[in-house]
Structures are given as structure tokens and as C-alpha cells.
Design a protein that fits this description.
Structural class: alpha/beta
Strand content: 5-15%
Number of strands: 17
Number of helices: 22
Distance between the termini: 82 Å
Radius of gyration: 26 Å
Length: 593
């Protein structure tokens, strides 16, 4: 028999309650905790630090800013497929997690938010750092657990343990996403570990119960049979891979087997975590050409994951009658509201089931041969444009992207910023991508890109990690540099500085107004990126040419630390390179068809 909770002092009761919670989350499978310390979270932070000192204990990252901390945890989830746990104090601290919470929900990524709270008697009376934290994230969270505060009833302790394990399971599926655990603490908050409850808590700890672990979810056998039938009946088909993390994406070998069995080519972009020598990667370019659309559009499409980033493809899906079937492990992924079917299921088991209904692949078709000729024509157009850009007096944005990707090792992890960056990688790349590509395409925002890369770096393996983003995205997450300074493996933050938000030069508005009227959208700035890096003691390099990009990356990719590489490009060079690419591609496509 162990002494009961009713024999403990108030401080020992709270300390033991905190130890049980932190240890239970670790038992459930949490390997990384991201903590922004504060007063009300003191017993939980202390318990976690004690746990981290155990052999093989969890990793703990201290991040000053809760907004940045949320994205660090999200980066861990994107890189590993497992939830990290956030821990903060009471009051407005937890509200700063909200941008990361909405991104996690939209991207189907697991996340645990442990929000420390004050006891119920301090609610609604003007007590400092107190607000109603119950279901703080509303419908953006896939789960909420009110853990209460330490009490003497033994049943409460078993319930605390169960809810911690259950929260982990809830965050991982069947609808993966963010889960809030609200836990209260009454003063005194200072730790008092020694006492009668130490052995009692030990007796409650143990392995994660297997019945709480998520099993793989597949499309039904009947759905697989019907889908296989449509694949075989289609005259021209395509398997389109959308933006997914490495853990969400289907294994490449499995994708190739489905492609071979169906006779349908794989269409993919940088964010898809797919790489195939026979794949279709230039579709955003050739879909801009009317003749190519007429000759090459499929009549049936299988979309795996969310819709791709390509604006050309989305316009086609919105305007053209095309039978499209969607399988994605999260959400309802049909932004144009025209899909023939949408099924929420894991890709790997679903494709394995689909394979059992696919017959022998048909022979190569004339359509497939035309498609490959058009792909080659677009590639040749890109080479022509890049050669022209390299002759310009100031570094072109297109050349900068090409140079960065050319000098990135295959073993690296590449994180892509949003807005223009994620599109330019597909428009301007002519080199093979590294094995892992991470992108924040849940809500497509520029929030927390630096912080998310820091989190992904924690679980990214031995290879270097490069974050490629624009200057506005970088400036939007300067707080992430505080987390980056503690990196103990290569983390290169490569900023393409085009003096603002140049994606707005692609809007119809840009052709209707002069440059001064467009200026509020392009948001020019005079920020000194070197000083931003220097505030946190992070190494800084500046590159103005292709050779300087190579030299800077060579200097950074082997350092076990973070570094900022600023690549200064001509302000409007992206839009001019785009227009040149569309013109050249259209001319070459005519000959290829």
C-alpha cells in the first residue's frame, strides 16, 4: 500500500501532480517538449526538467516567445510525424500559440498544448494573468481536456494519467491535429518533490496502453475496387501529389507501383516529397498554354493529399469538367468544390489496397509520349531563361534559386517558405531536390517559418537543414532566431531578399496601377538582416552572385550551428523571369505537340 494523496502537503501534492502529468505524456510518446517558462507553470516546468535528466529522457527546448515556441513544436511534428508538447504559463501566454494551432489543424499535424491555469476561484474577478482558458482554441483543436488541479481523491490521479495518454492518442488521429490540456495549480508553486506521494506516482507510471495507439486507416475495399475501375477506364489519367510532410506522404516505391499498374504518370511538385525521373513536374508551366491544356489534360485525376500549390492547376480544376478523386489523411481537400469523391484516409494502406484491384499496366501511349516531350520543352525553356538571367548585371531571383538548389546536398532537409518562394522552387529549379522537403501549406501563411525550421532541425537526422524563404517571411519571425541560436547541427536560414513582397506584382492589380500605388502591397523595407542575426549571435553571410552563394553555403552547411545567408537579388527580377519562361515555354510547346 502507498500513502494516499490526503497525507501530502499542498506543495508536495502539486509537485507530484505535475510529475505524473509530465511523465505520462512522455510515456505516451512525447519526445520533445517546448517550454516558455512562467510563474504558474513552475511545478510543471520543474517536473519536466527532472524528467529530462533521466537517461533517454525527453528533449526540452526553452523558447522565450510562445508564438515562436508554437511553431518550433509544429516543426517537430512536421519533421517526425509525432506531436511535441508545448508548456506555458497562464493568461495571454497560451493565446500566442493560436497561429501554430490553426496551422496544425489545417495541415493535419499533431500538437499538444499544456496550458497552465489558475485555480477556479480566481476566475472572473480581475486576478492577474487570468482568463477563461477552457476550450481556448475552439473548433481549431481536435480535442480538449480539463485536467483540473491536484486533489486528494485517488480516482483523480488515475484520471489525470488516463487523460494525458488519451490526449496524445487524440492528437495523432483518426483526425490528427492540436489538442489542449488545461491544468490548474494553486500556490505554493515551488517544488516539494520529497514526500509520501513519490512511490504512489511511481506505481501509476508505465508503458503507453496499446489500445490508445492509432491504427492505420484505409479506404474501403469497395472504394478501392471502384477507383481501380475508373483508373482502367480513363483514356488519360494523372496521379497528382499535393503538399505533404514526409510522414504523411506515401512511400515513393508504392507510388511508382500504382503509377506502373495504372499506366498513369505521377504529377508532383517540390512540396510533395516525391521524386521520380519519369514524373511530371512542369505542369504549372505548360498548363498556362492553351494548346497544351487541350492536348494533355487528363479526363480522370487521382489527387493524393491537399491540392497542389500550382495556381495554373487550381484554375483548370475550377474551370474544366474533369473527374477527380481525392484521398488525404486529413481535412476535406477540395478547394474548388468539384471533386467526384473525397476520402479521408492514410495514403500508404489505401494505395496498397488499391493495388490489389489493379490489373497489368497498359503499354506506353501516344499521350504519354507527348506529355514527356512537353515536359522536356519546358525544361529547355527554363535553361534558356536561366542562361539569360546569368548575363544580367545584378543577380536574378531565378538564378538565386537555381544556385541554392544546385549546392544543396542530397542528404539535406529543405524547408520552404510560403508566398513566392514555394512557387519559385518549382518554376526555376533544374536540379534534383534533397530527400526531405518540408512546407507549411496548411494555411499557406508566412507565420513562424524560422521557428518551424528550428523544430524540424531537432528531429531531422544527421544531414544539414536549409530553410529557404523570402525577406518578409524572415522579418515576420525574428523571434525564431532566438530559438535558432541553440541549434547544435547545421541549420542554414537562406533569405532571398527582393526588398518586399514581390508576389503582389503577379496580381491583376499590378497591371492597372503604377509602382507607387502598388507599394503598400509590396511592403518595401530598410531592415538590416545582418543586425537581426547579430542580436542573437548567429553567423551571417551575404551573397550577391552565384559564386558567393556557393561559398556561403559551403561555409555554413558543415557547421554545427545556425547561420543566416542573405541573398540580395534584383527587386523585380522574379516577375521578369516568369514572363520570359512562359513565353519561351509556349514557343517550344507548339513544336513539341
Amino acid at each position: 500500500m502507498h500513502p494516499g494523496p490526503d497525507s501530502a502537503t499542498s506543495a508536495h501534492l502539486t509537485s507530484s501532480w505535475a510529475r505524473l502529468l509530465m511523465h505520462s505524456l512522455w510515456d505516451a510518446g512525447v519526445e520533445h517538449f517546448v517550454v516558455s517558462p512562467g510563474s504558474r507553470s513552475t511545478p510543471f516546468t520543474w517536473a519536466l526538467m527532472q524528467l529530462a535528466r533521466k537517461p533517454g529522457g525527453p528533449g526540452v527546448q526553452i523558447v522565450l516567445d510562445e508564438r515562436s515556441a508554437g511553431f518550433v513544436a509544429l516543426g517537430v511534428a512536421r519533421g517526425s510525424g509525432k506531436p511535441a508538447a508545448l508548456l506555458c504559463t497562464s493568461g495571454s501566454a497560451a493565446a500566442n500559440y493560436f497561429p501554430a494551432v490553426v496551422e496544425a489543424r489545417a495541415a493535419g499535424l499533431p500538437l499538444l498544448m499544456v496550458t497552465s491555469d489558475r485555480p477556479t476561484e480566481l476566475g472572473q474577478c480581475g486576478a492577474p494573468q487570468t482568463l477563461d482558458q477552457l476550450k481556448l482554441y475552439g473548433d481549431q483543436a481536435v480535442g480538449f481536456f480539463e485536467l483540473g488541479q491536484a486533489e486528494s481523491d485517488l480516482r483523480a490521479w488515475r484520471g489525470l494519467r488516463r487523460m494525458a495518454l488519451q490526449a496524445y492518442a487524440t492528437s495523432t488521429g483518426p483526425i490528427p491535429g492540436p489538442v489542449q490540456l488545461n491544468v490548474r495549480a494553486r500556490k505554493p508553486l515551488e517544488p516539494e518533490p520529497d514526500g509520501p506521494l513519490a512511490s504512489f506516482v511511481d506505481s501509476l507510471l508505465g508503458p503507453h496502453p496499446q489500445h490508445l495507439i492509432r491504427t492505420e486507416v484505409s479506404i474501403s475495399d469497395a472504394a478501392a475496387e471502384q477507383l481501380a475501375q475508373r483508373l482502367h477506364q480513363a483514356k488519360r489519367g494523372a496521379i497528382v501529389c499535393g503538399p505533404l510532410s514526409p510522414a504523411q506522404a506515401a512511400p515513393l516505391q508504392l507510388l511508382r507501383l500504382v503509377s506502373e499498374a495504372s499506366g498513369w504518370p505521377l504529377w508532383y511538385e517540390a512540396t510533395s516529397n516525391v521524386e521520380s525521373p519519369s514524373g511530371v513536374t512542369r505542369f504549372d508551366t505548360w498548363l498556362r498554354d492553351a494548346a497544351a491544356r487541350r492536348e494533355l489534360l487528363p479526363d480522370v485525376m487521382l489527387q493524393l493529399g491537399p491540392a497542389p500549390t500550382s495556381g495554373s492547376l487550381l484554375r483548370v480544376l475550377d474551370q474544366v469538367e474533369l473527374e477527380r478523386h481525392v484521398i488525404c489523411p486529413f481535412g476535406y481537400q477540395d478547394p474548388v468544390n468539384r471533386a467526384a469523391s473525397v476520402q479521408r484516409a492514410d495514403l500508404a494502406p489505401s494505395l496498397e489496397r488499391l493495388l490489389t484491384h489493379l490489373a497489368v499496366a497498359p503499354a506506353a501511349s501516344a499521350h504519354g509520349q507527348r506529355l514527356m516531350r512537353v515536359e522536356a520543352a519546358c525544361q529547355a525553356a527554363l535553361v534558356e531563361v536561366l542562361e539569360a538571367c546569368d548575363k544580367e548585371s545584378q543577380l536574378s531571383e531565378a538564378s538565386a534559386f537555381d544556385a541554392v538548389l544546385q549546392n544543396l546536398p542530397e542528404a539535406a532537409t529543405l524547408s520552404l517558405g510560403n508566398s513566392l518562394t514555394v512557387r519559385e522552387v518549382d518554376w526555376f529549379r533544374r536540379h534534383r531536390l534533397p530527400g526531405r522537403v518540408l512546407s507549411q501549406r496548411g494555411l499557406n501563411g508566412i507565420d513562424g517559418n524560422v521557428s518551424a525550421a528550428v523544430g524540424a532541425r531537432l528531429v531531422g537526422g544527421p544531414g544539414p537543414h536549409l530553410l529557404l524563404l523570402g525577406d518578409l517571411s524572415f522579418l515576420h519571425d525574428l523571434g525564431g532566431l532566438g530559438a535558432a541560436r541553440n541549434a547544435q547541427a547545421p541549420l542554414v536560414i537562406c533569405v532571398i531578399n527582393n526588398a518586399g513582397g514581390r508576389i503582389f506584382e503577379m496580381l491583376p492589380l499590378a497591371s492597372q496601377v503604377d509602382a507607387s500605388a502598388l507599394e503598400p502591397w509590396t511592403t518595401p523595407h530598410q531592415a538590416d538582416l545582418k543586425q537581426a542575426a547579430g542580436i542573437h549571435g548567429i553567423a551571417y553571410f551575404r551573397a550577391n552572385t552565384r559564386s558567393e552563394i556557393k561559398a556561403s553555403l559551403d561555409a555554413c552547411l558543415g557547421r554545427n550551428a545556425a547561420a543566416v545567408v542573405e541573398v540580395r537579388v534584383a527587386d523585380q527580377s522574379s516577375i521578369s523571369a516568369q514572363r520570359a519562361l512562359w513565353r519561351s515555354a509556349s514557343e517550344r510547346i507548339s513544336a513539341a505537340l
